[in-house]
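@channel sequence for tomorrow's demo:
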Amino acid sequence: MDAETVEVLRDQLARCKERASALGLTPPTDGYVFSLDPDGGTPLVPATATQRFSRMAARLDIATNLHALRHHSATELIAAGVDVRTVAGRLGHGGRCHDPTCLRGVAF
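structure tokens (generated this afternoon):
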């Protein structure tokens, strides 16, 4: 993970701890950084993140969705010279991207 991403996650973790503390809660050491629970005890459901992103995009009058953002991210990484296997891994495909069909929708 790059330093900027690590810093963003550390900031998010600090906000989570502050929120829990303000409510008199102690977050578990294995809690989730992205959670609707004040103590971070349960993970954010993926559909919730997708829905929130869609609402935000609509509010900002941006015609996009979270899946399109994944494709954009892959395109930018490949354009920056990141190898295909690394890009596939970042998208959650692990080492399964052995043929070009897994890169459909990615512009070169």
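heads up for whoever presents: The chain has four helices and no strands.
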